[in-house]
Amino acid sequence: MPAHHLLLLREVNDTELPGLEWDPEQLEIQVDWRGMYNKFLGEKFACDRDFSDMRRNIALDSKSKLDAGRINQDNYIKELSARLEAARIVSYQKVRDERLDRQLSRLQVERGGESMDKFQKSAERRLKIIRSGLNWLDD
Q1: Residue 7: phi, psi to the nearest 5?
Q2: What are the CA-CA distances from residue 139 to residues 22, 49, 55, 132 (Å)?
Q3: pTM, whole model, 2 decimals?
Q4: What is the pLDDT of residues 90-103, one digit of tens each?
Q5: What angle do the packed helices 73-110 and 33-67 form, to 10 degrees?
């Protein structure tokens, strides 16, 4: 799990926190708030744009099934709802994975080109590397 979650505009995300500074003695953090909002909203808009494209195709496909008599009205609504929810999740995961890949690339450069290929498969492993790079390991 990510070390943090942001809740903004009824949306939850583990967006990068630019300019993060942690003072463990004072139990305070500092964050570039404008940068954080920029990253958060940028991901939200990317997800919404990606989902919008998928939604249009899903709606047309489901409607054609209904019109062709392959599903009835009740199943049409259930199928459409399930497919739209799945598309929203896929859209979020795609945008999130792109961000994690960018963060990994940046950390790899900061660590002098250290190979991180073995961690590319799992998002949880990627998060551990990112936390490690930011000194956010659980102590």
Answers
A1: -120, 110
A2: 14, 39, 43, 11
A3: 0.63
A4: 888 888 888 888 87
A5: 150
